[in-house]
Amino acid sequence: MSATTYAWLALLMPLVGTVGLAVGFKLWPGKTAGYIATVAILLSFLAGIGALIQLEHHPANHRELVSSLWNYAVTAGVDARLSILVDPLSVFMVLVVSGVSTLIHLYSIPYMESDRGFVRYFSYLNYFVFSMLLLVLAGNFLFLIVGWAFVGAASYLLISFWYRRRTATKAGIEAFVLNVFGDVGLVLGTFFIFRHTHTLEFLPVFHAAPHLFAKGSADITAGCILLLLGAFAKSAQIPLHTWLPNAMEGPTPVSALIHAATMVTAGVYLIARMHPLFELAPAAQDVGAVVGALTLFVAGTIGLAQTDIKRIVAYSTMSQIGYMIMGVSIGAYAAGLFHLMTHAFFKALLFMAAGSLIGAMAGEQSLDRMGGFRRALPFTYATFLIGGLALAAVPPFSGFFSKDEILLAAAERGGWHWALYAVGYIGALLTSLYTFRLIFRAFHGEPVKEARELEAGHLPHAEVPRNPATGEVEDTDVGFPGPAHAIAERSWEMKVAMGILAVGAVGAGFLQIPRTDHVIENFLAPTFVGAAGYHLREGTAKLALGLSLSTVISLAGIGLAYLLWRSRPALLAAIKARAGWLQALLENRWYFDLALYRGLVEPAAALGQAARQGFERYVIEGAFVGGAQLAAAAGSALVRALQSGLLRAYAALLTVGAAGVALYFLVRA
Amino acid sequence: MPVTIGAYLAVSAIVFALGVAGVIAKRNPLVVLLCLELMLNGANLALIAFSRMWGNGDGQIFALVVMAIAACEVAIGLGLIVAIYRRQLPIDVDRLKELKG
To answer: Which pTM value belongs to this model?
Structure first.
């Protein structure tokens, strides 16, 4: 079977899964739905491996395969085909997405076991994987936009999964609206480019682009910046980032999958895929790099002040994606995508471990209430630590190599990119700091009541189920979230999933060691033929500086976290007292949420209200509807006057009419 | 002086017009029916006159048909009036206006 057939199979499996689960909604007993969904994605992953093997059989310069299922609308002006592009980049993404998804599906089975929406959950999750694979395999702009919109829909469905919670539905709507903002950018950007290329297919566009656009011309820059808008919305970069922390309202495996490993990386994929266009618009590349750097810094600082553990990890995701966006924007495609892969592993692992911790806390997510879970949750602690070390980029964990790769690329490009280098390392320090703040506060110190209960062998239960975000009491008569909470120590599925991810978090780094092996770079090379500086090799001095600085900073971050949150908490209190304004800034998330709310949501709501009270009431209901009503009433009153019921009047009318007709014909003749 | 077709048609028209006037102006349904008969007979006159003019029997046959129809119609009309009388409703077309819209 050819690579493209495998790719179609990889797309088909999750689709079959989602439709099968949805249609047979009431049929699936117990946990069957979960296993069916997991197997579907596993088959998809295996198909991805098949595609990989088949692709490697092709000679290096023939690894961009297009397969079109049928022509949707091919006319003079537009060519819309159902086509996929199988090349190293898409196969890479397929493998990452389906691989991590399989493990998350497996993890979800015990996690969502007692939830009444079990089948619905797996149907949605499969739908998401299908959409994401569609996005990465798309061979033309149209398919990409379709996949983009589908993942947005899947994200909405999964964020507001526990739809009886007000906070969840609000978060879902917020995510959807902000993503639509980005969709507008994506579609407009496509349009700007399509105007000149007259084709929607990727390969013809990329081959024709250097001839159609002058480097740095307004059209291509505008198109690329609009595409970037789409990327920023989907990848939660400033200023379209406020939806991501609120998206933590969804179940933890959803946060792991969508908001850590896959959907939020769609923006990174977009920039990498569109690299021929971005190479022609250096201004757009600079915008991407600056926004990425800004986000990684701001998100890092916010992570220091959050108390909800899922939100800490969410801001961490935002920050890491800032690194990736920065990487692909400056042209370090292999580095950015390598970080995407390693981040998928360790971030999904972190979320899974956080889910286990939340289970042990019986649904409570606040860091203020946690402490000393080290002995109660040994496996969770170990995996959390592995994920945390990888995130903090401590050697030899994977995060070290991938993050370093990006920063080395920035250093190598020189000039103003040294600013990005500096911000990157500040961000690394912050990452280390907030990660180990979380670990030290949750796992070290005095065990809280729940931890002691667990050490005694009894899984704690909340007497009154509460919404973890607002603390309000909620009714669980509806059946979800389920009353039982799962922890990793008690379910083999969670252990297997987390174990495999831990191995990835540790070992994936060795795929791309500077000066030694460049597996990812060589694999992705056929896609990035012609990309300036793709094979840029860093100078020895910069390499030494980078590696040592990275190690020092990450260890310093861990040390500082230990100092502030374990050994000298008085110091932390003193800092908070001195810099109260900083605390306020961070707790209010740099006021972005407030700004967006005041700047966009409130005016829009006010406009809507004004339109309703003013325009709609007087013009539409008054003039149009009322006017039509009056006209109809007047007309019918007129006609009603004729219906007097008087026989003589009817007879008279008849006579006059007949005489009129007769006269007419007489006069005519 | 020979009697032209015009004279016959004039008589027919006068009879018809009298009938129309009666239908519109009278309130008693029996009188309205009578005037309706006048209208029909006026038309019959015209038909016969034309038949005499052309010398064939077409008009006469049609006149016979008209008479038959007039008879049926009167039967129905009289039946209606008898029904109205039986229900003790006013025998006045101006007062019978339940069809007023």
So the answer is: 0.81
Do B100 and A655 lie within an 8 Å CB cutoff?
Answer: no
C-alpha count within 13 angstroms, C-beta hemisphere, residue B82: 6
Residues 6 or more apart whose CB falls under 8 angstroms from that of A534 comprise A331, A333, A334, A521, A525, A528
Q: Which residues of B are less than 8 Å from A647 in CB distance?
A: 32, 93-94, 96-97
Which H or E run contains A71?
strand A65-74
pLDDT for A461-472, tens place per residue?
Answer: 777 777 777 777
> Which residues, 6+ apart, have CB-to-CB distance to A564 below 8 Å?
A437, A571, A572, A575
**Least CB–CB distance from A645: residue in B20, B24, B97:** B97
Subunit contact A643:B99, Cβ cutoff 8 A:
yes
Name which of A385, A395, A388, A270 is nearest A336 in CA terms: A270
* Secondary structure (3-state) at A473: strand
The DSSP symbol for A536 reads: P
What is the distance in angstroms between the Cα of B55 and the nearest Cα belonging to chain A? 25
Binary contact (B98, A651; C-beta < 8 A) = no
Q: How far is A664 from chain B (nearest CA, A)?
A: 18
- Whether pLDDT at A36 is above 70: yes
pLDDT mean over A290-316: 91
What ipTM does this complex have?
Answer: 0.88
At residue A477 the predicted structure's pLDDT band, cuts being 50, 70 and 90, is low
Q: What are phi and psi of A70, to 5 degrees?
A: -155, 165
* Three-state secondary structure call for residue A275: helix
pLDDT in tens, A340-384: 999 999 999 999 999 999 888 888 888 888 888 888 889 999 999
CB within 8 Å: B97 and A640 = no
- Calculate the CA A126 to chain-centre distance: 15
Integer Cα distance of A337 and A590 in angstroms: 29
**Nearest C-alpha in A relative to B17:** A655
Mean pLDDT of A184-198: 91
